[in-house]
């Protein structure tokens, strides 16, 4: 199996409805922070995002942020949402995901990892043995490291598309 291959491709994280997650037996959503949950120019998130977090909470579906960023930065970013988080996750390594799985005694079969990058988020998900959900980045950024990552992403995505033509964007889980 290709380690970059997402299980699902969903346009936005808040299109993952509690109903669809329940139907698939998913009880925990691990999510990347930057460009997946929030955009750098909108740290408070959108009303849709806040509603999504609320909806999942109502259904007892946990949302845990798994970010490569440092503790202070992630804490500050997620505080307003009341979400649990793991920082310095070292994606594409499995360090962060496995730390969260161990700490919370999660079942990997009922856990998914959502992120906007194939080479970090999806690779970490596949290597850790949880299903990955790729989302479109909320916004393009100018940071050099992001630009470099996008460059690699372009080639990885192109080869994935060639190999798995069935991989297309969906609005919702199916
Ligand atoms: Mg990201």
Automatic annotation (TrEMBL):
Under Pfam families, the record lists: Hydrolase (PF00702)
Q: What is this protein called?
A: YqeG family HAD IIIA-type phosphatase
Q: Which domain of life is it from?
A: Bacteria
Instruction: Please list the GO terms describing molecular function.
Output: phosphatidylglycerophosphatase activity
- The region annotated as signal peptide is none
Q: Which NCBIfam families match?
A: HAD-SF-IIIA, YqeG_hyp_ppase
Protein species of origin: Pediococcus pentosaceus
Q: Which Gene3D superfamilies match?
A: HAD superfamily/HAD-like
Q: Which InterPro entries match?
A: HAD-like_sf (IPR036412), HAD-SF_hydro_IIIA (IPR006549), HAD_sf (IPR023214), PGPP1/Gep4 (IPR010021)
